[in-house]
Specification:
The chain is mostly beta strands and about 475 residues long. It contains 6 helices and 38 strands. Helix 1 runs antiparallel to helix 2. It is globular and about 60 Å long.
Length: about 475
């Protein structure tokens, strides 16, 4: 009876969350149907043996799937890298936009195009065993998703099934693009898994439970950092060691050289705040709160956003910029001389600020991207009173609008731009790459993080999924 009541509670809150996301335009009716099917699917946990069907199907595949080569050489031809067994779930469970927005990509391709990894889940055979840090919380809020978790997770690469964990996140590849890595949880331990090898960290004794928010992994995949709760606020934890304790912690990230950077504030809505970048710490007065920052190529703080509670402004070398309602997505050019960011004027309009100059107003704006030579800025935006999203290059709209688009990428010489477009904004739409305004082949799924140009700029490459099949796709730039 308790198990059935708990399932009803979870279905209720999933429906509420899905309805809200649907009303905001983030998910659609197909996503609601998928969530309902997933909730009903939990009953499979009571069926003996059903939890091994997916894992067994992967291990019994007759054909040895492609594995990453021991170097980072790019795969220069279209190649089938694998097939997701039917026992591991329907394609829409891996490709639906709602699931990707909430839980991150479940399918990731290696940057060199020789390997693919994806996470699968199978129901537990019995009631969920909650980690000690979650038990008090779950006694008070038994309907929360983490308390209702009856799934086990594993990562599949080739025909190899990884260790089964209570939770898996941050699926990606190492800095060389060869070995899959991810963060796993088992009991009170945080585990960094790199190519099947575990590096385990215990939750510090001063921490009560994990705080909401993602893990971040160093470029060399040897360290993992996250924010956790303590009796007085938040703790920054690196490889199981507490680095600092604050009321709030924001923008936790690793620099390109492997140093950890973050903003920690002693007050909830005010300073003093510390901007930590590697071994260097900058302190700001009680009247300031740092809501974002940008690092240059050497890991130094190039600019930061000062927030006063009702408005924000960018500070560069102690020079304060114009005030806006909110500022986000600071980006510094590769040569370190230019700065771009998004300024939200109100709830329905935003400006792109490049080198201090304002663009016209947009209804929606995504993160700016500089070209390798620092001469151009590309971004995806939607214009007022117009439908769809378009690519803008140095302030000028390029090509046609799409129901949704994202992730612009420059070629190494800066002469070409590619991005991922969608046939719809919700559900499980078809996705395709657009290069210099020309649409490429449509797929059920595209791993946008894998989108890149060949070194000579003559080809565009990316990982794609069509039905159960996973492909490394190479297309000529016209």
């Amino acid at each position: 009876m308790k198990r059935q009541a708990a399932r009803v509670h979870r279905e209720f809150w999933l429906t509420v969350a899905a309805a809200l996301l649907c009303s905001w335009g983030i998910v659609g009716v197909q996503s609601l149907e998928l969530w309902a099917s997933e909730s009903q699917g939990m009953d499979r946990a009571e069926q003996p043996g059903s939890d091994h069907a997916c894992f067994a199907a992967v291990q019994s595949q007759a054909v040895m799937l492609s594995q990453a080569k021991p170097d980072s050489a790019l795969n220069s031809k279209t190649t089938k890298l694998g097939t997701i067994p039917n026992e591991c779930g329907r394609p829409e469970e891996f490709y639906t936009l709602a699931m990707e927005k909430l839980f991150g990509p479940r399918v990731r391709f290696s940057p060199n195009g020789h390997s693919v990894a994806y996470s699968v889940r199978a129901p537990k055979a019995g009631p969920p065993e909650l980690p000690e840090r979650h038990r008090n919380f779950c006694e008070t809020f038994p309907w929360e998703l983490e308390c209702m978790d009856v799934w086990r997770y594993a990562v599949i690469s080739g025909n190899h099934v990884g260790t089964v964990y209570e939770r898996v996140s941050n699926l990606n590849y190492d800095s060389n693009g060869i070995r899959p890595r991810y963060v796993a949880e088992k009991g009170d331990n945080i585990i960094l898994v790199l190519n099947g090898h575990e590096q385990q960290f215990s939750l510090p004794v001063t921490v009560t439970h994990m705080a909401p928010g993602p893990f971040v992994v160093s470029p060399d995949a040897t360290r993992v950092a996250y924010v956790a709760s303590n009796p007085n606020g938040r703790s920054v934890v690196l490889n199981g060691e507490v680095l600092g304790e604050y009321q709030t912690v924001m923008h936790l990230r690793f620099r390109s050289d492997g140093g950890l950077a973050y903003v920690g504030c002693k007050g909830i809505n005010k300073g003093p705040c510390h901007l930590v970048s590697g071994t260097h710490t900058t302190e700001f007065p009680e009247t300031s709160r740092i809501s974002d920052y940008a690092l240059d190529t050497k890991g130094r703080v190039a600019a930061y956003v000062q927030w006063s509670g009702s408005e924000s402004r960018v500070v560069v070398q102690k020079k304060r910029g114009k005030r806006y309602r909110w500022i986000r997505d600071l980006r510094v050019s590769p040569n370190g001389t230019r700065l771009a960011y998004v300024a939200d004027v109100d709830f329905s309009s935003s400006l792109m600020i490049v080198d201090g100059k304002e663009s016209s107003r947009y209804a929606s704006l995504q993160t700016p991207v500089f070209s390798p030579d620092s001469k151009h800025v590309a971004y995806i935006a939607s214009e007022p009173d117009k439908t769809g999203f378009s690519l803008f290059l140095s302030g000028r709209r390029q090509g046609t609008a799409h129901p949704y688009a994202t992730h612009p990428v420059f070629s190494p010489d800066g002469k070409h731009v590619a991005y991922v477009a969608f046939t719809a904004k919700t559900g499980a739409p078809k996705r395709f790459v657009v290069v210099d305004g020309v649409e490429q082949t449509r797929h059920d799924y595209i791993d946008r993080e894998s989108l890149q140009f060949s070194p000579d700029g003559k080809f565009v490459m990316y990982g794609a999924g069509d039905g159960q099949d996973l492909w490394w796709t190479v297309e000529s730039v016209q």
